[in-house]
Amino acid sequence: MTKTQAAKIDALGSKIRDAALNTLIRLYPDVRMATSAQIDAAIAAMRAKTPEVLDRLFEDTKNAPWLAHIAIQTAALTLAQEGVKSLKSG
């Protein structure tokens, strides 16, 4: 992997992370009242789901590159849902 490719993957990761956190707040506004431990648990749940989500993202964009923007949105939503699930259970 070249430095340019690594930089592009890092940028994509940042974009998905930011979108997932923004989506989490929109889906579950009560996150603002969560404790630090609850937020840490939600983020940990999102991180744990990330490899699976990225594998799916890369597979989807390889098979249908014209839908990359939808695959990115789906990845962010999936990660946000993991965070919401964690917050609701804890």
What does this structure look like?
With about 90 residues, the chain is an all-alpha fold. It has one domain (about 5-90). It has three helices and no strands. It has helices spanning about 5-25, 35-65, 70-90. Helix 1 (about 5-25) packs across helix 3 (about 70-90). The longest helix is centred in the middle third of the chain and has 28 residues, at about 35-65. The chain is elongated. It starts with a helix and ends with a helix.
Question: What attributes characterize this protein structure?
Answer:
single chain; 90 residues; mainly alpha; 3 helices; 83% helix; elongated
Quick one: overall form? elongated
Topology pattern, helix = H, strand = E: HHH
> Taking all residues together, what is the mean pLDDT?
93
Q: Could you say how many structural domains there are in total?
A: 1
Q: What's the story with the biggest beta sheet? A: none
Give the strand content.
under 5%
Number of strands: 0
Summarize this entry quickly:
It contains 3 helices and no strands. The protein has 90 residues and is mostly helical.
What is this structure's SSE topology?
Elements: H1 3-27, H2 36-63, H3 68-89
Helix pairs in contact: 1-3, 2-3
